[in-house]
Amino acid sequence: MTWLAWRQFRANAALAALATVAVVVVLLATRDRIAELAGQDLPTGYKSLQLLGTALIGTPAVIGAFWGAPLLARELEMGTHRLAWTQSITRHRWLATKLAVAGLCTVIVTAVFSLVFTWWSQPLDHFGNRIGTANFGQRGIAPIAYALFALALGTLAGAVLRRTLPAMATTLVGFFLVRFTFQLVVRPHLLAPDTATLPNNLFGQREGQPGVSGGWIMSSKTVDAAGHALTNTQIDQRLAAGCDARRETAIGELARCADRLGIHDVVKWHPADHFWPLQAGETAIFLAFTAALAVGSFWWIRHRTA
Amino acid sequence: MIEFRIDPRSGVAPYRQLVQQVRQALRLGLLHEGDQLPTVKDVVAQVAINPNTVLKAYRELEHEGLVAGRPGRGTFVTRSLADESLAAHQALRGDLARWLGKARQAGLDDDSIAALFESTFRATADEDVA
Amino acid sequence: MTALATDDVGKRYGRRWALRNCTLEVPEGRVVGLVGANGAGKTTLLHLAVGLLEPSEGAITVLGGRPGAGADQLARVGFLAQDAPVYPSLTVGEHLRLGRQLNPRWDRDLTDGRIARLGLDLGQRAGKLSGGQRSQLALTLAMGKRPELLVLDEPVSSLDPLARREFLGDLMELVAEHGPTVVLSSHLLSDVERVCDHLVVLAQGQVRLEGPVDELLASHRVLTGPRRDTRSLPSGQHLVQESHTDRQTTLLVRTTEPILDPRWTVADIGLEELVLAYMSRPATDGPAAELAAVPS
Fold first, then answer.
1. Would you list the domain boundaries of chain A?
2. Mutate to test the interface with B, among C174, C181, C194 (most CBs of B within 10 A)
3. ipTM of the complex
4. Same domain, C128 and C243
5. Which of A5, A124, B95, C199 has the fewest CB atoms within 10 Å distance of its CB?
6. Closest Cβ opposite residue A80 in set C87, C99, C103
7. What domain count does chain C have?
8. pLDDT confidence bin for B82, thresholds 50/70/90
9. Where does B5-79 have alpha helices with state H?
């Protein structure tokens, strides 16, 4: 069965190898350029990082749609399951082998992508952050879990829908739904965010200074000395009331006045060293989803199809 | 070696057709004593009929004493029919001719004669079975 | 031993019963013809027999075991599904390898010899084979594991007459040499008549007739005679079908005794007419086995 599973997966594996080589070559070729840019033109360099990161978001989805969805849907669609399930192995062993082959390739491809992407973005890491949503999901171990989840989702969709194209569409939609809902709603709370007290930045005077850089900001409020949140209108009022508008007109003087009044920022954030705990939590949860979906596929082909 | 054909529309059971073809071949001298009949496997591969049909035909031929099966070797002809057809059937042929004459005198036409023969043949065959 | 036995087995899809109250027993060593119109339940019954489906009610036993229940049971039954599904991108040779690797008991000489004799190119992709060649490949795969029971779902329905003849000839050769029990479904009665010695007729999900072919033919008679009331039939004769004109009555009866009433003209019935007669009887709600099974 191992031979058959590999033989059926052959084209997929070849394509994946090709794609991996292409991505690696491109990244290798541009790495030095990125390092240069990082020294001179930060925004451009950072844009490239974000662009590539965004492209790699699609990798698990593509794996789910092109490797997972056809795994069962294709067999059911063409009727070849009637050939496969009447040989001398059980359906469970058959599916387990196919999933193992696809799963192994999934892990290898996403691991390579994650490693290469991490290495490639190192020059920019000093300035950007890897924990922010643009890059978090394409580095570390989370992408592997996403891809396995997409694979399992595609497989179950294929079993239930029995047609490859609808299963592919369902997998793409379903994957992105879960992935981004999780990022939006669950990830922030996987770990309790830190609270930082920072001087205010009302006039942009603190730009470029270390503070919460390299971290992932959840929320940022400007508050008064007692800790009450201030709207822009209220800030203007306080400044008007507490600062001598005639004498302190320069930006620097107004800023020092604001400081004197006790106006400061309170930021809820995940500092950079939360990266690995968050990765671990998200990976564990997605792997749990994967297991559940895989069990679902095994159950479905045993009890629901012919 | 003899080659068999089955006519599905002849109204004759397939195994009987095989028997008849063997007997015909014997009568015409196409099969001699000692000749081997095709194996069951070869017959069914060529004619696409159930092996039991062939077995039944060969058993019937063996029952009639025309062939004998040698285990592991095949089925072989033990007797020819060339000389039998005339002598043994001469008396019956005569009886039949006389009966036909009587039937025609009674006014039966060809179809009536055939129908009468069929139904009597059937009735006596059933009696044998029952 | 019984090759296939069902006990009141039924299969339901939603509210529709594809098969119901199906009770039959097929002795081993037979070539069984499963006959019926499209939608009569043939494929359903066959899929139940090879474990692709589970019954909604009743029980089915194949070679003494439960269909599809584990590798051992699967190894004893060979299946050729309708339209002979194969993997289009795998070559003929790779299909043979599939069979070899997925079946512990594989007769390599048999399959390789057969493929060579058929003249199939081992390197040819299965998707490029003709219909007849695909069926032959699929048959080779089904028989390669030397099954005790070989199940074929309409194996020749889409083949031209020559391919059909060759397929059936090869199948019969396999039966003659290795003797598996064969169950094949067909809606072509001429084929069934040639190769099958046991018959099961399905209509609307129910068994209408079942038994050895020669006994079925020997035990049915067509009676033609002057118009009369059929309630006066002797007790040994069971009425299967009747039709009347103003002057004439034609009956199909099942009986093992000779017809002695001289008013009847008695004739044999062909298999096709017999099957049609049973198929056109109205469906019964309860077990149709009462008249269906011919005592042997």
1. 2-191+274-303, 194-270
2. C194
3. 0.88
4. no
5. B95
6. C87
7. 2
8. low
9. 14-27, 40-47, 51-63
